[in-house]
TrEMBL record:
Keywords: Iron, Metal-binding. This is Related to pirin. The keyword Magnesium does not apply. Signal peptide: none annotated.
């Protein structure tokens, strides 16, 4: 017998300036939701700037970057490089240490580069794993249409209505679905019991939940669900003119302390101090950072 998940909270992600020419809506990692284990941060970014994020380090977390519009190049000190294109993703595991660069390309029509970046914590036992990348091109993402084709689901990670995603994208167990619902459409999506889960709305109006406890939200809202239950329900009113579009994400909570300092995410203050020392002295995972400079980051300021 399935049990519907109730809504714990829902709030609007406020847009703010970030760097030069960028606007960011930070839902997870902000004052309204500092963290939601294993999730550390969710940024919905829009940028016309080509400055991007030149050479910088990470340790102790994974990042999932989903590009909604545009193209972004990436490169790291291990020789990995590639381009994320519209509808594609990059799964990056920082592990014991990585130095990389993320730089947007100009769009021919002058439109901004738009996407989502989700920071996911690593279990303590994997904090010192070797760094790695996984790129996922749009053509590699399986999908399914349900409810008489009124609901379209891209299964980026996880499972939806019998369709499995591409495997081994991240170490931390995470489901990541892109859902678009036409007016009159409805989806009841299974989620692993006990996992934390949220939806982030990209456009339109969507009603989450069932009965009187349900809630209709517009674009740029983060809807956090209770852990109890194993399904999430979402629907769009038949009288609505615009499709509802959102990502639905769930992850296995980690029973561990989180200590953060900029791009480093560890479990103790001592480990953060060690990460800073290792980066400064090019040791314990950062050896390849010595003298390294990305090609795509050259000329950035």
């Amino acid at each position: 017998m399935t049990t519907h998940r109730a809504i714990r909270k829902a709030f609007h992600a406020i847009e703010q300036n970030e760097g030069v020419g960028a606007r960011v809506r930070r839902s997870i990692g902000g004052r309204q939701l500092p963290e939601l284990s294993p999730f550390l941060m969710l940024d919905h970014f829009s940028s016309t700037s080509l400055n991007g994020f030149p050479d910088h380090p990470h340790r102790g977390q994974e990042t999932i970057t989903y590009l909604i519009n545009g193209e972004v190049d990436h490169e790291d000190f291990a020789g990995n490089k590639g381009t994320i294109k519209t509808g594609g993703l990059q799964f990056m595991t920082a592990g014991r240490g990585i130095m990389h660069s993320e730089m947007p390309r100009p769009n021919a029509d002058g439109s901004p580069n738009i996407g989502m970046q989700l920071w996911v914590d690593l279990p303590q036992s994997l904090k010192k794993c070797e760094p790695r990348y996984r790129d996922l091109q749009p053509s590699e993402i399986p999908f399914i249409n349900i409810d008489d084709d009124r609901v379209h689901v891209k299964i980026i990670s996880g499972k939806s209505h019998g369709v499995d995603s591409v495997k081994e994208l991240a170490y931390t167990p995470v489901w990541f679905l892109d859902v678009e619902i036409k007016p009159g459409g409805r989806i009841v999506q299974d989620l692993p019991r006990g996992w934390n889960a949220f939806a982030y709305t990209l456009s339109g109006e969507t009603r989450f939940g069932v009965g009187k406890s349900g809630r209709t939200v517009g674009e740029y809202h983060c809807v956090v669900f209770e852990q109890g239950g194993d399904t999430v329900t979402a629907e769009v009113n038949a009288d609505t003119k615009q499709n509802g579009h959102f990502i639905l994400v769930a992850g296995l909570p980690l029973d561990q302390k989180v200590v953060r300092y900029g791009p480093f995410v560890m479990n103790t203050e001592a480990e953060i101090e060690q990460a800073m020392m290792d980066f400064r002295t090019y040791s314990n995972g950062f050896e390849r950072a010595r003298g390294w400079e990305s090609e795509i980051g050259k000329g950035a300021f």
